[in-house]
Each structure stands twice: as structure tokens, then as C-alpha cells.
């Protein structure tokens, strides 16, 4: 089988999300290392919340990076193989780059915290919104956003799976688009617990701040190729990797095309490495012939490894 490992991003967090790895040495050591780098007890936050703190972008993003890397290290510590490909959904791309050896964990963690701060500060608290639109014909989404904008920004942000798209922008425009999408046949429209409108043009100032910080971060050629959301392609050149990370912030996450790319390379087993199983569900809908597994706790990790 050809293996890809994928990492979830913001939106997969929940209070207690790492409890299933209690006692795992690799996981606990990764969280200790994160605390020594940043001074923040991310393991305590993951275990105890509160949810309001967990859902703040400046907390969620570093925490999800640590969680993804911790799960990856647990996979390797128990004999899990290196994959042929890595990918990550939005923020998860940073976990993928760490796992692939393109970025050091001690560099990635402060970088992601800066990314989160830049995103939060790009749009005042409460001014932005991000929502999932379910069951709407994908071809109608552009018109829905255009009709709902009324001089504000609302744009497709995450192209997650057929019939499941996330939109982002000014909160009022997002709310209008949610109502209009339901009028035009969407099954559901749900505001998401995220405090910054990711992957839309409102994030342009944050992208420029990220560009400046990335210039001082060492990025190496990945040992295993990482498929980037912005282009649904993998790059060896560190300069191209940096540009993919910058442009990711104010452009849509092309997850459908990312998984289709993996399938086209012969990937037939996809392991989601991190809290929750959001990507596993999406991947099953995109790559119907692939085996998709989430290893969100020690039991799931052991079961995945026992299946070869």
C-alpha cells in the first residue's frame, strides 16, 4: 500500500482532545518540549480548556501544531512507517513540514504563534466570521458569495469535499451568505468556532507579517514530499515552500484537489495524525477507494499499526 499521513488544522480542537494519549511518552515529551519553547502549558489547555480559550486562534493554532507533531512522534515511536507523502489541512501543513524534516519544531511553534496573532489582529474581534455550507452545489457558491457581499468580503475559504465548503469574511456578509445558501438549497449552514476569518482576502495583512517572519526561518528540502493546500502540489525548493505558506493565509484551502493529487500518485491508505477525525471523513468522500484511518488516541494508533 502507498501511505500518506495528513494532519488536521484549526477546527478539530476540543476540550480533552489529548486524553486518549495519557501516559504516552512521545506525546508527553512533545508537550513538555513545547512548554520549554513557549512557556505555555498546552497539554493542560488541551485537557482542561476552557473551550473559550481553546477556540481563540492564538491558542488553537500552536496547540494543534503540538498535538499533530506529538501524534506523529507517537506513530514513529511505536514503529509506524514513514509515508510516501505528507499533507496538512491549513495549519496542519506546518505539522507536515515538521514531520518531513523541512522545519524544526522549535522554529515552527513560535512561527505558528506569530501566524495566529497576525490573523487575529488582521480583523478586529467579532468583525469576522467563518461558516460551513453543507449540501449546496459547489458551482453555486461563487454566486452566493457575490450576492451576499454587499460591499463587504465573503469568499470560499476551505474547499473541503464535494458539497462541503467553508466561507469566510466580514461577519455580516458571512451571515447573509449563510441565509442565501439555505434559500438556494444548502442543507445546512453553520457558523464555526473560530475567531479569525481564515483563508480570505481579509488575511492579506497577516500574510505579509508571516512573509517577513518566514524570511528568518530555516526551511529545508523535505525528506518526504509535502502537498501544499494553496497549489495542490509538492515543492522541494525552500523558497517555493515559504511562498506556499504565505499565500495559504489569504487564499482558499484546496483540500479536495490535495486529496485527489494524493490519489493520483497511487496513495491508497491515508492516516490522519492528530485530534479528531475530520479529515478522515473528508478523505473518504474524496478518495473513495482509499483506506482512511484516524489515530486520535493510543487505541486507534495501536489498531492502525496492527493492520500493517
List the helices and strands and how they pair.
Blueprint: E1 3-7, H1 25-38, H2 42-48, H3 51-54, H4 57-77, E2 85-88, H5 92-99, H6 105-122, E3 128-134, H7 141-149, E4 154-161, E5 164-170, H8 171-183, E6 188-191, H9 204-214, E7 226-228, E8 233-234, H10 238-249, H11 255-264, E9 269-272, H12 278-286, E10 291-294, H13 298-306
Parallel strand pairs: 1-2, 1-9, 2-7, 9-10
Antiparallel strand pairs: 3-5, 3-6, 4-5, 7-8
Distance between the termini: 9 Å
Strand content: 15-25%
Proportion of helical residues: 40-55%
- Evaluate the radius of gyration: 18 Å
Order of helices and strands: EHHHHEHHEHEEHEHEEHHEHEH
* Largest sheet descriptor: 6 strands, mixed
Return the structural class: alpha/beta
Can you list the strand order of the major beta sheet?
8-7-2-1-9-10
User: What is the overall silhouette?
Assistant: globular
Kindly report the oligomeric state of this protein: single chain
Could you give the count of β-strands? 10
Low-confidence residue ranges: none
Number of helices in the DSSP assignment? 13
> On the 0-100 scale, what is the average pLDDT?
95
Concise account of the structure shown:
This protein has 308 residues and is of the alpha/beta class. Helices cover 47% and strands 16% of the residues. The longest helix has 21 residues, at 57-77.
Written overview of the protein:
It is a single chain. The protein is globular. The protein has 13 helices and ten strands. The longest helix has 21 residues, at 57-77. The protein has a six-stranded mixed beta sheet with strand order 8-7-2-1-9-10, with helices on both faces. It has a four-stranded antiparallel beta sheet with strand order 4-5-3-6. The mean pLDDT is 95. Helix 1 packs antiparallel against helix 4, helix 2 packs across helix 4 and helix 4 runs parallel beside helix 5 (92-99). The chain is α/β, with parallel strands linked by helices.
Amino acid at each position: 500500500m502507498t501511505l500518506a499521513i495528513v494532519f488536521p488544522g484549526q477546527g478539530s480542537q476540543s476540550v480533552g482532545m489529548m486524553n486518549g494519549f495519557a501516559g504516552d511518552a512521545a506525546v508527553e515529551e512533545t508537550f513538555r518540549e513545547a512548554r520549554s519553547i513557549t512557556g505555555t502549558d498546552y497539554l493542560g489547555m488541551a485537557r482542561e480548556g476552557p473551550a473559550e480559550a481553546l477556540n481563540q486562534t492564538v491558542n488553537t493554532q500552536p496547540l494543534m501544531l503540538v498535538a499533530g507533531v506529538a501524534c506523529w512522534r507517537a506513530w514513529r515511536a511505536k514503529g509506524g512507517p514513514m509515508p510516501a507523502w505528507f499533507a496538512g489541512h491549513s495549519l496542519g501543513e506546518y505539522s507536515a513540514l515538521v514531520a518531513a524534516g523541512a522545519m524544526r519544531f522549535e522554529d515552527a511553534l513560535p512561527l505558528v504563534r506569530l501566524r495566529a496573532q497576525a490573523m487575529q489582529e488582521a480583523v478586529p474581534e467579532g468583525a469576522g466570521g467563518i461558516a460551513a455550507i453543507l449540501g449546496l452545489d459547489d458551482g453555486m457558491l461563487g454566486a452566493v458569495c457575490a450576492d451576499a457581499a454587499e460591499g463587504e468580503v465573503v469568499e470560499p475559504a476551505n474547499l473541503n469535499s464535494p458539497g462541503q465548503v467553508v466561507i469566510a469574511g466580514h461577519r455580516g456578509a458571512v451571515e447573509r451568505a449563510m441565509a442565501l445558501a439555505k434559500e438556494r438549497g444548502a442543507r445546512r449552514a453553520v457558523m464555526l468556532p473560530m475567531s479569525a476569518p481564515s483563508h480570505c482576502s481579509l488575511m492579506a495583512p497577516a500574510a505579509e507579517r508571516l512573509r517577513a517572519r518566514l524570511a528568518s526561518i530555516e526551511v529545508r528540502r523535505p525528506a518526504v514530499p509535502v502537498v501544499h493546500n494553496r497549489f495542490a502540489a509538492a515543492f522541494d525548493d525552500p523558497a517555493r515552500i515559504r511562498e506556499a505558506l504565505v499565500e495559504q493565509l489569504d487564499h482558499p484551502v484546496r483540500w479536495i484537489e490535495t486529496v485527489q493529487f494524493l490519489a493520483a500518485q497511487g496513495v491508497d491508505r491515508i492516516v490522519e495524525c492528530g485530534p479528531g477525525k475530520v479529515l478522515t471523513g473528508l478523505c473518504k468522500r474524496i478518495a473513495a477507494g482509499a483506506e482512511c484511518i484516524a489515530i486520535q488516541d493510543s487505541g486507534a494508533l495501536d489498531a492502525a499499526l496492527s493492520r500493517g
